[in-house]
Design goal:
disordered C terminus, mainly alpha, rod-shaped, single chain, about 0% strand
Length: about 190
């Protein structure tokens, strides 16, 4: 009888400690996954940032009267670059703005048919489309990992460990503007 009580008195705290450690480690793993997924997006965004000046320079040669559109693209790119690396929400907002301004470059091809025929422009647009596709895949992965992380940190009993461990809710990478939800029409 005494050994049973001793097993219960020692066993329950040991089980709670094991559960706490396992839950904490799971949350750390999920947090690291969200940060890794965001890092993947960041790398692709850098590729996009590097491509934009070449695209703008090519377009400038054909569209001397569209300087305002091109200046907006460069300004949106610079704002996105200037966001602190650890401010995910601000980065998402800046990227949404950049994507919206890039749409105006896509629409320039309608007004300048000779631009559509330019080999360098077509190559840059193809590269940009590939990067955009990679970014979209990375966004989906990031949002899936964030969903799992947020569920683990907000659902009982994990929320208790999350509160003690300082685990905060992570933002989803969402499109804010209704116009940005429309498909981009790119023609070559």
């Amino acid at each position: 009888m005494l050994t049973t009580i001793l097993i219960i008195v020692i066993g329950i705290p040991v089980l709670l400690i094991i559960w706490g450690v396992v839950t904490f480690n799971k949350m750390v793993s999920l947090r690291n996954s969200t940060e890794g997924a965001w890092s993947d997006i960041d790398v692709m965004l850098k590729k996009r940032y590097d491509l934009i000046p070449n695209l703008v320079a090519t377009v400038k040669g054909y569209t001397k009267h569209e300087s305002e559109t091109l200046e907006k693209v460069i300004q949106a790119r610079q704002q996105a670059i200037n966001v602190k690396a650890d401010d995910v929400q601000k980065q998402i907002e800046a990227e949404n703005m950049l994507t919206q301004t890039l749409r105006s470059v896509y629409s320039l091809t309608e007004s300048y048919p000779e631009l559509k025929a330019d080999a360098q422009f077509n190559q840059l647009m193809e590269q940009l489309q590939q990067i955009e596709t990679e970014i979209e895949r990375a966004r989906r992965y990031y949002n899936a990992v964030v969903r799992d992380y947020n569920n683990a940190t907000q659902m009982f009993p994990g929320a208790m460990i999350a509160g003690m461990g300082g685990f905060q809710k992570k933002p989803y990478y969402e499109i804010e503007s209704v116009t940005m939800r429309e498909n981009v029409k790119v023609e070559f």
